[in-house]
């Protein structure tokens, strides 16, 4: 690896795709300096070496959200990622670029985002103000403290990186996905909005389907923390009418974890399972644990932590 004068020759291996050939890899060699982002590297490859290479990019400044892709396996915005930084991080001049996971490929690094946009539109991503405001008879100002809560979640650039990295989206067709939840919470929590009941119906069941793996937190280029939006949305469950089984189970699980920590300072696995899933549901899980040889861990008798009063003080806030 050579980084002479903050310049380097790099081999970029692109995972390409066409409907006729399927996926295949192609290598390109080029010189980069300390200012070369991946969108610039791809622009030079396309204009100087191979006009058939397809990728999306527009703003080149992390605003339009069109250049999401996997760089050395990590979901990234190509315009926000410098080639030299990746060479330094991985200690290699050979870098792979692939289309984002989960989405259907269209051509090379371009993926079909229809599914992503459908999810975003399902949460009604705009404010529904009151009639008085719409008719110009009233003004509804947002207080600075409310704006502070909403600001983070309004910064989404619809890049799709969090969805491409989310295991729950891939497994559960009823889950709206991290970006839609960030957007949904931004309007659910807006005191000027008038369709709270409808939003609760759209968001609450889905919010309990997240597995809290934090991948969306790790990959979001705007530090939006979609998982935080999901946690905050769950707190609205108490307002939901006609609760689904998923919501009821989620609420039971939260209560079970809370009471286990309150009593012992720890999450007692078997006790939490019993309270959440009942005897029958827990027995199914026990059979699974027995088959996988993990039952002994579930049955370990945990000692309560010392100074439990301190833990309880924390829980009471
Ligand atoms: S924390 Fe939830 S929304 Fe975020 S990536 Fe994991 S499962 Fe998906
Ligand atoms: S939440 Fe972040 S990663 Fe997800 S679409 Fe919005 S900006 Fe992209
Ligand atoms: S080109 Fe617009 S976000 Fe990267």
Automatic annotation (TrEMBL):
Coiled coil: none annotated. One of its GO terms (biological process) is tricarboxylic acid cycle. NCBIfam families: dhsB, PRK12576.1. Belongs to the succinate dehydrogenase/fumarate reductase iron-sulfur protein family. The keyword 4Fe-4S applies. Its EC number is 1.3.5.1. InterPro entries: 2Fe-2S_ferredoxin-like_sf, 2Fe2S_fd_BS, 4Fe4S_Fe-S-bd, 4Fe4S_Fe_S_CS, Beta-grasp_dom_sf, Helical_ferredxn, SDH/FRD_Iron-Sulfur, Succ_DH/fum_Rdtase_Fe-S. It is an enzyme of class 1 (oxidoreductase). One of its GO terms (molecular function) is 2 iron, 2 sulfur cluster binding. It comes from Sulfolobus acidocaldarius (strain ATCC 33909 / DSM 639 / JCM 8929 / NBRC 15157 / NCIMB 11770). Keywords: 2Fe-2S, 3Fe-4S, 4Fe-4S, Iron, Iron-sulfur, Metal-binding, Oxidoreductase, Tricarboxylic acid cycle. Signal peptide: none annotated. This is succinate dehydrogenase. The lineage of its organism: Archaea, Thermoproteota, Thermoprotei, Sulfolobales, Sulfolobaceae. Its cofactor is [4Fe-4S] cluster; [3Fe-4S] cluster; [2Fe-2S] cluster. Residues 147-174, 200-230 form the 4Fe-4S ferredoxin-type domain.
């Amino acid at each position: 690896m050579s980084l002479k004068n903050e310049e380097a020759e790099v081999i970029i291996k692109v995972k390409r795709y066409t409907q006729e050939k399927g996926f295949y890899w192609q290598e390109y060699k080029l010189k980069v300096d300390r200012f070369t982002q991946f969108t610039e590297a791809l622009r030079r490859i396309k204009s100087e070496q191979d006009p058939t290479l397809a990728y999306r990019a527009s703003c080149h400044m992390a605003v339009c959200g069109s250049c999401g892709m996997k760089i050395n396996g990590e979901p990234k915005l190509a315009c926000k990622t410098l080639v030299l930084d990746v060479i330094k991080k991985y200690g290699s001049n050979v870098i792979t670029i692939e289309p984002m996971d989960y989405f259907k490929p269209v051509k090379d690094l371009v993926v079909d985002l229809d599914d992503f946009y459908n999810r975003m539109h399902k949460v009604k991503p705009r404010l529904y103000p009151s009639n008085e405001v719409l008719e110009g008879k009233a003004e509804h100002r947002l207080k600075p403290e409310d704006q502070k809560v909403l600001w983070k979640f309004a910064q989404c650039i619809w890049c799709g990186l969090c969805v491409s990295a989310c295991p729950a989206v891939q497994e559960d067709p009823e889950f709206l996905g991290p970006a839609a939840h960030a957007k949904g919470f931004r309007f659910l929590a807006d005191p000027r909005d008038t369709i709270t009941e409808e939003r609760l119906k759209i968001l609450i069941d889905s919010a309990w389907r997240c597995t809290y793996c934090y991948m969306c937190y790790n990959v979001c280029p705007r530090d939006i923390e979609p998982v935080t939006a999901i946690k905050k949305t769950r707190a609205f469950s108490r307002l939901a009418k006609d609760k689904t089984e998923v919501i009821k189970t989620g609420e039971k699980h939260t209560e079970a974890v809370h009471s286990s920590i309150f009593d012992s300072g720890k999450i007692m696995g078997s006790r939490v399972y019993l309270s959440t899933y009942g005897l029958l549901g827990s027995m199914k899980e026990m059979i699974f644990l027995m088959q996988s040889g993990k039952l002994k861990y579930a049955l370990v008798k945990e000692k309560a932590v010392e100074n439990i009063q301190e833990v309880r003080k924390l829980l009471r806030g």
